[in-house]
Structure formats: C-alpha cells, structure tokens
Amino acid sequence: MRQSEDKGTEMVFAVIDTNVLVSFFLSEKDSPPVEVVRESLGGRITPVFNKYLLEEYREVLSREKFALNEHIVSSLLATIQSFGLQVESIDQGIILPDKKDIPIFEIAMVTRDLDSYLVTGNIKHYPKVDYVVTPKQMMDLLNSGLV
User: Fold this and answer.
1) Which of 87, 11, 7, 2 is nearest to 46 (CA)?
2) This model's pTM is above 0.85
3) Architecture of the domain made up of 2-144
4) Most CB contacts within 10 A, which of 5, 71, 94, 147?
5) Helix, strand, or coil here: 118?
C-alpha cells in the first residue's frame, strides 16, 4: 500500500485476473468481482497490468459466448490503461498448472515491492501465498482497513 501523491489516500496495487473481469460483466450488481472492478475504476485499487494481460482481457472479453458490448469492453480497458500501472514482467522461472497463468503471476511478482495483490477467482491455479486473493478476500481486506 502506498500514499497517493495527489489525494493523500492509500493505494492498493492489484493484478486483476481476467476471470474477475468476466465475472464483473456476468455477475449481479454487488458481487465481490463487481466491487473489485468498481474499486479499480474508483481509485481504491490501482490495477497493475502489462501488454500480455491487456491482450488477454480483450481476447477473452470479446468472445462471442459472452456477448459483451464492444464499446463497453473498450472503455473499461482504456480506463484500466489510463489509471493503472503498466509494468514489464520478468521471467521468474515459475511453473504453474496452466501456462497462461504464468505471465499474470509474474506481474504480481515484479510488483511485490508495491505490496501488490493478485485478485483471482481461480485461487487454486496459483501458489498459496498471502498476496494471491479471491475478490471477496480483497474486498474484506479493503473494508477492514488492513490494506
């Protein structure tokens, strides 16, 4: 957590897994994924991403089976780019069950100096570490004042 230079408020950095964005679009209005994305757009969470993750967001959210409005998806991704923190990930030599999860986990690894989190609905896909959390856990941390 870091102090925001312009607001004097605390900032929480988080890599938002693609499944959280999918859940945001498909969930009811006050579900934890919806709250996490709202907080990412509202400034309590600073989304951390790289080029790979942005491309994955766009590819997955554009799938025909979700039938999402292309303009709304583009607006969300533009907002993430504008207000988030873009980083370059570094090969950490990590092995995960799904190779597509490795670049996402590596973003969290290179931003550990910012105490960043990885927020995912698929927590079992990642190592058991305290900074890999579900959307509900992220909201509990935010609402408790622990971050």
Assistant:
1) 11
2) yes
3) 3-Layer(aba) Sandwich (3.40)
4) 147
5) strand
